[in-house]
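User: I'm preparing a small set of examples for a lab meeting where we compare how different chains pack in three dimensions. I only have the primary sequence for this one, and I'd like the structure in token form so I can line it up with the others. Please keep the answer compact; I'll paste it straight into my notes.
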Amino acid sequence: MSQPTLSAHFASRKPSVIRAAQFEFKGRNDGTEAVNVAIGNVSLPMHPAMRERLRVVGTPDGPLADGVVKYSFTAGLTETNEAFLHIISASGFPTAGLLSQVTDGGSQAMELVILGCCGPAGAGERPLLLIDAAYTNYKAFTQRLGRRTVSITRTLDEEGNFSLPELGEIEAVIREHKPGAMLVIPYDNPTGQLYDQATLVALGKLCVEYGLWMISDEAYRELYYRGNEPVSVWGLTEDEVPGITGRRIGIETASKVWNACGLRIGALVTDNEEFHRRAVAENTAGLCSNMIGQQVFAALGEVPVGELRQWFAAQREYYGGMLTSLTTRTRELIPGVIVSSPDASIYSVIDVRNLVDEKFEALDFVMFCAREGCVQRDGRSLTLLTAPMAGFYSVPAGTPNPGRTQMRIAYVETPDTMALVPELLAELLEQYLDRS
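Assistant: Understood. Below is the structure token output for the 436-residue chain.
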């Protein structure tokens, strides 16, 4: 009797690089504990208004008091969409003319954007233009949907700064590959880079000139640690970028600034009415996003702007101190290591290219830490789980991958635990290099 066969797509799938170490560590049973900084699974409590709404959602005075949980409209509850626009407004950006659609986290918004902006392989193909290193799930979703990515690659210098190529080089990639959209992540995952307003303006002008959608993943908006004002695609004006109106798309999420990764609520925001209408139509097959999650997130729409800005400032203070101290301590403990500049989001890239030979692979080091590496601390056996960076790049075959010597860490453990990361990294790297 013949067995059913997997599709070629399924047969080729492996865990995402942000989950790979965790998958491997699950098979370990020697009593070692993992400090898991491989994935941005925020461990802080949600905003107080969301926590209160969660508490009352099913009580006699709550919105689901009768226990009936029906579908919402596909675009989501009006209150939830208004909450997303209220948050954008609290960051100081105009929301007139913006249209919001609730999604299952930022992830579903990514998929809808790829479907709406990029054509499949073959005649008329319109790939997604990434700025490497780029959040790896964009690559995964394009593959799932039968689309393709092309990329321009930033360079990480010895001081930890990621630099864009000259605009002429970016234009050459656009002319050659004719992408349908350009993705920017202003508060960048994975690099921790902060795009300034001048860079967004320059990239926006390219999108207008070459007929691209401009997609801005704003999951970490307000998490910036240099400069005095946030940046956003919604801050681009017609005076700065003539023609930008009607080609902008923003991705929002409850996961990061609001500390609600497991709520799985996001939004797709655009200033293009037809894109919004088609995106909602496409998503009718998914019916609607989680109703309880929508109710919880909608509570933010009732929070005054001043209180939201206080929350933003508290989040920046919490993360900014950890990023700075970890960057400094890692450079002290591992002379020659490169740590990306702690400018934004909740990530750092660690590059050991000055310390290893050409055979070193970050993935192998990450798997060593997950399978057998350990450090003794105060009677505990600890290891460190990080994300190998090669999967964040889309380099052509035969081209050296800058991620070969890089790992991403996420600031998701408590400050006391994050303070252990430089020591764990230094000792585990020494163990790995001694055995190689």
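A couple of notes for your slides: Residues 191 and 262 are 23 Å apart (CA to CA). The longest strand covers residues 248-253.

User: Perfect, thanks.
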